[in-house]
Amino acid sequence: MFKVRRAQSGDVGKAIAALGDAFAQDPLMLYLFHESPEGARAGAMGFFSILLRARIALDMPAYVLSQGDDVLGAVMGYDTSRPDWPAPLAEEMRQFEANVPGFAARLDAYAKICEAHQPSEDHYYLGVIGVHPSLQGKGAGKALLDAFSAPSLADPKSHGVYLETASPSSLQFYYRNGFQLRGEGSLDGATVWCVYSALSGAGSARR
Predict the structure, then answer these.
(1) For the residues 76-88, what does the mean pLDDT come to?
(2) Any residues with CB less than 8 A from the CB of 197 and at least 6 apart, and which?
(3) What is the domain range of residue 44?
(4) Domain at 183, CATH number
């Protein structure tokens, strides 16, 4: 049986390995990292590692899915605030971008699609969610999604949860869990869908 808990620094290695398996054939990761010197999977894992360590350092929403001593999935993002990263992690990200040919430009193209369709009201942003293939289809993804969404529901500033996906199967998963399409864009043939789950009774009704 698996459980979901807050991510800790000691979880990073196992969580990133699980995300590497989860995103091994993800169209967006293949787009972003197809020029990575060590291959797309290694590039994605390096990216996820920096992101997860930043979320933990900033005390942003970050959760792992564990089964015994194993960590087999993770979800991370931002609450309604967007704090500056700690300087060492910001510098690590700059170095990472410089070491992957074309990555900064591709990431910027992706960010422009995301920003074009994001809600104007305060919301939680879910940046990454994935589970090891051995647990896909067994409720693990929903458990992570629910864990991320719970503090948004409890936060009087938040009006919902926003995210993007380039996976058709993941898009259907989000539709089944109450998300609605806000817009989409194309990145070298990979479609990026931007979806949002608006909270009913957001704002004053939940205070």
Answers:
(1) 97
(2) 149, 160, 161, 162, 174, 177, 178, 179, 180
(3) 3-206
(4) 3.40.630.30
